[in-house]
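question for whoever is on the cluster today: can someone run the full assembly for these? two chains, 268 residues total. i dont have access anymore since they changed the login thing
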Amino acid sequence: MAVKPQTWWQGWRYRGGGTMIAWLLHRIGGLAMVLFVGMHVFASFLTQQFGSDVGTAINIVYESPYFQAPLYFLVIFHALNGLRIILLDTFPKLLEYQREVTWLQWIVFIPLYGLAVFFIVARILSGE
Amino acid sequence: MRSRTVPQPSMSFEYIMWMFTRISGLALLFMGAVGLVMAFIMGGRELLDMPTLARWTFFPNPNHVVNSDIPDVTQGWANAYWQIMQIVIAFFGISHGFNGLRVVIEDYIGNTIWQPMLRGLIFLVWLFFMIMAVFVILAS
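^ ran it for u. tokens below:
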């Protein structure tokens, strides 16, 4: 298959299939984590060295449940999807079952993320 | 459908980074599990609060967990074992992340003059964050 020159946004267009969604979420989650962890390291450096308020302000955002809920979605999904990629790369014969493995990944993901959401919602309800 | 045959990869930069992404990803999962279990053992069983759990899991630093009311943070975490763990986690995490950023960017810019320039820029940002993270760990 020849690769036609494309504009960058065409790569993000939905072409169908659960694996495309997995790829897209993996990418979005990875970029979000680079931004999140980078700002977090920077904030802890500022807090530690200069005692600046910037770090505390960023921390308040990070600890808010409305920030935590989407973040945990992306982190847990990125971890599980990475495991799927490693598994399929190590045993290429399993690529025949790509669709089934992607469904299995969601089956593992939902209870894990549900647990995270349970603790986040419990924190909102306890009024902290 | 048969699985396709893949040619034997040579030791290129891309191949080494491909391997590194997988090894560091597994290592981060493993070290995160160690951090979480150790935090539970060290008295965190009754503080099931997600930000605090994430802190223990990936960056168990006495300076870092200070505003999440854990009993005796400095006693448990300010020692050489956790400092080495933190430096290794920071190295794997930051390198994995910035290599991923490089892969995403190079997917969209292709083989132009921007590729080596952005590679250099990402390397410098990676170095900056590594030095900053190790500094925070060793100074706390």
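summary bc i know u wont read the tokens: Residues 13-139 of chain B form one domain. The two ends of chain B are 56 Å apart (CA to CA).
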